[in-house]
Amino acid sequence: MELDPVLQKLKVHTPKILGSERFSKYAVMIPLLQKEDGIHILFEVRSLELRRQPGEICFPGGRIDPEDLDEKGGAVRETVEELRIDEEDISDVYPLDYMISPFGMILYPYVGYIKKPDRISPNPSEVGEIFTVPLAFFMKNNPEIYRVQFKAEPEENFPFDLIPGGEKYQWRARGLEEYFYRYGDRAIWGLTARILAHFIEIIR
User: Nearest-CA neighbor of 141 among 92, 191, 197, 65?
Assistant: First the structure.
């Protein structure tokens, strides 16, 4: 093969996250609202009728649809659908760092202000209940962090003869940090807690 066509291919290539075209893409929103004692963060408890993660605490959000203009549009649309408010009821929507999950998912988190929280009427097909926590609680309380280790288990016909050390190859330990916040009898954990911790890091 000649050099010129190789260089031309490289010249027009736009770098992205390797393999990201196969990733599922989701957007979520941390909803802020004003109460008498200050700013609160709104959380949802997922409906027990849902197939995925029923009863878990989360933020409004979901898979980005082809008709969404961008990731922000997906976060706003999902919040509107789940809280049954108007798009005009959400203001000051700003992005946080996006996350790449080890399970083939890219998550785009946003923060937005709910101007008229009295209009919220959760969609029962997705939301079992909602509750709020004062922002001050998270400013004063750091998350608990626990590490989950993953064990490497190559499939039966893995070509050990092609790698140094063969079956005694020292696989690098893979782990995942799980974040937890305890608020009364509520456990806010997983990606929801990780996004929340990132948000608090920024505003501190």
Answer: 197
